[in-house]
Amino acid sequence: MKYHDTGRDSKILPQCGQWNMANKKVINGSKVRYWACINFSRNVQQRTANAFCQQLVQACQTLGMEFSQEPVIPVYSARPDMVKKALKYVHSTSLNKLDGKELEFLIAILPDNNGSLYGMILRYSSTLYVLHFQLRLFHCL
Fold it and tell me: What is the pLDDT, as a whole number, of residue 81?
């Protein structure tokens, strides 16, 4: 794999399908201007979810991505049984704030690695609301 020459390591040979991104920068990093986060885990406090998002943003910027520092709306907390309502709220609130532009990236913090919640989020986001963002799910135990 080849990375940007400004990183300490510009080439790497993956082993067993794994590699470490430490000290590397991507050549053509994605741009994430409009993003949001939904916290579905009752065990993750608001300040922890905010800190996690900021650490993720910082990590992406360090790798060479253009990633907006702040989410479009504050991190939204919702119960796991309120997936449809949470997605609808985040989607409509973001559309209003962005004058019709779509989110590009949504972070969903899950309470565990329960496949049913994961599947529900994917189904609602892709079929009911036709959301065109990249969805990333994070499990918090």
Answer: 92
